[in-house]
Write a structure and sequence with these properties.
93 residues, alpha+beta, 3-stranded antiparallel sheet, 3-stranded mixed sheet, 2 helices
């Protein structure tokens, strides 16, 4: 089990920018049907896992917890790997 104290106060999350002040989290469906928010403890980890063309946002952990409590998603997946075919790489790879 991860040490809660080891989680930084802010996390990098895959996101879509709308051209306004709004940012939309990119959520992922798990094999059991639950919806997860992916979150990374560093920008390097997000880029390694999601690809160098993945848009992102920096969010406070407290806000992610509030969104989860409100039912926006069921799980926060910390530093997960994204399958190679789903990564957003420069050049469309």
């Amino acid at each position: 089990m991860a040490d809660v104290d080891a989680v930084p106060p802010v996390l990098y999350v895959p996101a879509r920018h709308t051209g306004t002040a709004q940012v939309h989290l990119e959520l992922s469906a798990l094999t059991d049907g639950r919806v997860a928010a992916l979150a990374y403890t560093s920008l390097d980890r997000l880029v390694d896992a999601c690809g160098d063309a993945q848009p992102w946002a920096l969010l406070p952990v407290d806000l992610l917890n509030e969104l989860q409590a409100a039912g926006a998603f069921a799980v926060i997946a910390l530093d997960p790997e994204v399958p190679a075919g789903l990564r957003k790489e420069t050049g469309g790879a």
